[in-house]
Structures are given as C-alpha cells and as structure tokens.
C-alpha cells in the first residue's frame, strides 16, 4: 500500500478554509475535500491516509477535527481501517451516482450506514466543531503556558510534605465545602490588595480551573437557548463551554476600549463574558467608560457579567488595572480567577468570587456535579500564599516575562520591520502581531513546518468580516535564548508565503 501526499495536496488547495466555506465546520470541510479527492480518483483504492496527528499539525487544526472527518469517511464507506495500522481508501466508494456509474448499482440498493456523528448530541457536535485546544504545550510560541521550569518546586514540595504529615481524614475526602477555608481566607486577603477585588472568604468557590468556573456559571445562570455575549475576537475555550451548555453565543465586537456592547440588542443577554484586564487575544485593556457602560447594561438587562481575569498579574506598562468586579455598583459581576498562569496549568485550580446571594446555589451545585477534592493541595496553596511565596513568585516572574517580551518585541521589529505592527504588550504572556501583507493562516502553517507555533489571529473571530490578519504569540514558556532563533524561523515562514 502506498503513502499519499495528501497533506501537500490539502495545503495546496486554494479553497481550504477560505471565507466562502467559513460557515462550514472544519471537520466537514476536511471530509468534503478527502471525499472529493476519492471520487475524483486523486486518491485511489488502497491509498493510505496520513496519520491524523500529522494532518492536524500540517493544517493547524485540532486533532479531534481530523479524527471526526476520518471517522465519518469510514462510517460512510469511503475508507477502511485495518486494526490500528491506519485508514485506507476503500475499493468501492459509496457515492450513489458514482456507484451507479462505475459499479452499475442502483441507488435503491443503497443502505445508509448508521453514523456515530448523528448519535452525538447537537451540543456535542457544536463543541467538537469549534474545538481549539492544541496537543502542543511546549515551545515557541505556544500560547497560555507559563514557564513551569521556574516554579519553586522545593518550596512546594516542602509544603505538600508538611500538609501530608498532618492531613486529617476530612482532607482526603470529597471537598464538600467548595474549597478549603484557609485557601479562601488567604485568597480574599491577597486579591483585595493586588486586584481591588471586593469580597469576603465566604464568597469564594474553589474550582478546577477557570473552565469549571465558567461551566458552573453557564449551567446555573442560564437556560439552553439563552444568549451569552462573548468578545469577538475572543477566547474559544469559553465559547466551547457555553456551547456545550446549549447557550446561544453572540459575538460582540471589541475595539480599542474593549467589548463594544450593543445598547439596544434584539435579545437581552443572560450572561456577558469579558476579559477586561487583558482582552484575549487582542491585549486591549477595557476603558473605565466601557466598564461603566457594561455594568449599567448588565443591570438594565438583568444579566450577569463573568470577568475572566486569567493573567493580569503580569502587567508591565501603565497603571495597575483594578478588577471590574470591584467597580460594579450593582454587584452583577462574577470574578473568575485561575492559578494556571501564575503557578502551572496542570494544578487545575481556579476560583469564583460570587455575589453573596449566589454562593449557596453554587456551593451545592459544585458538590452535586463535581464533588470537589484536592483539599491537601488547597491547604498547601493556602500556606504558599499566606507565607508570601505566591506574591514573591509573581514578582520574580513578572520581571522574567517582561524581559522576554522586550526581547521578542525587539527581535520582531528588527527582523520584520515594515511587515508587522505589534499590539497588546502591556500585560500577560502573549502579544499580537498584525500582518500587513501575508495571510495569517498561510503563515501559521508555514511556521509550523519550521517548528514554530503561531496561531492565526483571524481564527479567534466569529465574524470573518471583522477578522484581523495577524499572529498571536505566547512568550511565557520560551526561554531568552530561544527567542531570537525562533523569530528568525518565523520570518522565513512569512517570507515563504509572500510577506517580508
Ligand atoms: C482567556 C483564558 N481564560 C482562562 C484560561 C485558563 O483556564 P484554566 O484556569 O481552566 O486553566 C485561559 C488559558 O489559556 C485563557 O486563555
């Protein structure tokens, strides 16, 4: 059986993920392309399709998207799988017209094979179609990853050992109190000082990261079909959570002041999801005027604002940005925090700060849905914060990340002068590069072939008309020595697609 140059063929296809097909889910586009190639005879019987991981990498799409397309090809009879050895083009394509023409079979003899896809819920299909999580967690310029090599392991290990020595039975059980009280106390004190958050420890519900926190808000504060406003461009992870809860996600444009909420919408939102301290991914900081407008509109519509404060600890320029929650006179803002960027993502700890009236409902629901746990880890984290290690680690990392960002900015400016504009450098672990000429999807694919992850900015937009052409580059986990060579490879990738 022969290998196929399918990846090259797909990459070379002019209409791959182009705007005229942008309404179609990516897995459907991939399915259509491969099916089309089989029917056109470009992929003959017995040809082996490339491994899903390779296709995902080559096309900068989620592996699930490819798996989904391959599964459907097999289910519809275009391909066969041989006990884990791969996916092969079948001998008799099932397309009714083709079968009739080539094999003399009548359409009446077609028996539609059952499709696993059709047995998934509509919410699951939407979730899979919009899937954006990448398998790649390390290297230049992977997004959203802190430098986990800098995590103070020795201190953490000492605290964990200390907690285990004295762990009572309760600490090894389910987390029925929606988070360990010492952690909530330490957090409330820290956040009041560092983030201007207005809360008592009782208002905190500890979660497994922001995603679980957002999921709880979606399930408890809105019903299927209700409208949630999200920023456009925006965080695909939150969009996925809302879609999985059956909510109607409405993309609201972002300008230089942050989310631009419509003042007379057709349907009032139930939820408004924002990243005011560091808009994801554009880097815009929401202006005070916009914060006021948003809190007033939320009050008018009876909507809850979900403030995702995911990486604002790392602010390099400009005045510190207090939280929206602390500014909301109507107390409709729910603050979502995470330890993923400050400590490490695998810790899976985050938290919600709720208005007092919601705490009981969230606590019971958290326990019913997830049971909770990790109380020894939460106790160790409480000590880590109370003993000052948390603030010290943030200070140290802010300096390191600030230096990396300066290095990255300089390298980009000297290699790509005239080709790019750099934005969103005040805060966080990523910046955004606007491309003046080269197409961001093509650059992203070319960069991947050079071992560089550079997510296309346009892929963060729900509305292709609004989409800006650029790259989102994470620098948190990229060491100083890697930055220069990585930018050089990125520049080569940009040149190869007709920029620079
Ligand atoms: C905008 C945004 N919010 C939240 C998160 C973190 O989510 P979690 O706390 O579940 O790790 C990320 C991670 O990349 C993010 O980019």
Automatic annotation (TrEMBL):
Pfam families for this protein: Aminotran_1_2, GntR
Enzyme class at the top of the EC tree: transferase
EC number: 2.6.1.1
Name the UniProt record assigns to this protein: Transcriptional regulator, GntR family domain
Domain HTH gntR-type: 24-92
Keywords: Aminotransferase, DNA-binding, Pyridoxal phosphate, Transcription, Transcription regulation, Transferase
Keyword Transferase: yes
Organism the protein comes from: Cupriavidus basilensis
Family in the record: In the C-terminal section; belongs to the class-I pyridoxal-phosphate-dependent aminotransferase family.
GO terms for MF: DNA binding; DNA-binding transcription factor activity; L-aspartate:2-oxoglutarate aminotransferase activity; pyridoxal phosphate binding
SMART domains: HTH_GNTR
């Amino acid at each position: 059986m022969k290998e196929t140059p399918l990846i090259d063929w797909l990459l070379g296809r002019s209409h791959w993920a182009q705007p005229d097909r942008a309404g179609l889910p990516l897995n459907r586009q991939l399915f259509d392309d491969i099916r089309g190639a089989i029917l056109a005879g470009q992929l003959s019987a017995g040809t082996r399709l490339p491994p899903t991981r390779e296709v995902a990498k080559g096309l900068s799409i989620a592996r699930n998207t490819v798996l989904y397309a391959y599964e459907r090809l097999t289910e519809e009879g275009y391909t066969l799988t041989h006990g884990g050895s791969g996916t092969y083009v079948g001998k008799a394509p099932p397309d009714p017209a083709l079968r009739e023409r080539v094999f003399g079979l009548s359409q009446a003899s077609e028996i539609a094979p059952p499709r696993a896809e059709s047995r998934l819920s509509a919410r699951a299909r939407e979730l899979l179609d919009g899937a954006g999580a990448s398998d790649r967690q390390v290297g230049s310029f992977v997004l959203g990853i802190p430098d986990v090599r800098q995590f103070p392991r020795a201190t953490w290990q000492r605290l964990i050992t200390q907690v285990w020595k004295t762990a009572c039975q309760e600490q090894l059980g389910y987390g029925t109190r929606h988070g360990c009280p010492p952690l909530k106390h330490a957090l409330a004190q820290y956040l009041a000082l560092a983030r201007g958050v207005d809360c008592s420890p009782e208002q905190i519900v500890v979660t497994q990261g922001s995603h679980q926190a957002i999921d709880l808000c979606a399930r408890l504060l809105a019903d299927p079909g209700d409208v949630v406003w999200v920023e456009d461009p925006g965080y695909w992870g939150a969009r996925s959570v809302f879609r999985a809860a059956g909510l109607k996600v409405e993309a609201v444009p972002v300008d230089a002041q942050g989310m631009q909420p419509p003042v007379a919408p057709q349907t009032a939102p139930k939820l408004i999801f924002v990243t005011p301290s560091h808009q994801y991914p554009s880097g815009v900081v929401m202006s005070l005027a916009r914060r006021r407008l948003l809190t007033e509109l939320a009050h008018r519509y009876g909507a809850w604002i979900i403030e995702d404060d995911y990486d604002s600890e790392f602010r390099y320029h400009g005045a510190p940005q207090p939280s929206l929650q602390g500014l909301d006179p109507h107390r409709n803002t729910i603050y979502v925090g995470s330890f993923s960027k400050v400590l490490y993502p695998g810790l899976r700890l985050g938290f919600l700060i709720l208005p007092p009236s919601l705490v009981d409902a969230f606590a019971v629901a958290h326990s019913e849905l997830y049971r909770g746990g990790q109380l020894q880890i939460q106790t160790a984290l409480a000590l880590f914060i109370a003993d000052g290690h948390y603030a010290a680690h943030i200070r140290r990392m802010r300096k390191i990340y600030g230096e990396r960002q300066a290095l990255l900015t300089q390298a980009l400016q000297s290699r790509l002068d005239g080709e790019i504009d750099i934005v969103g450098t005040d805060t966080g672990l990523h910046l955004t590069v606007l491309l003046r000429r080269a197409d961001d999807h093509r650059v992203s694919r070319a960069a991947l072939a050079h071992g560089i992850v550079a997510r296309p900015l346009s892929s963060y937009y729900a509305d292709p008309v609004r989409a800006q052409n650029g790259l989102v580059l994470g620098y948190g986990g990229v060491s100083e020595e890697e930055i220069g060579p990585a930018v050089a490879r990125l520049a080569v990738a940009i040149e190869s697609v007709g920029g620079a």
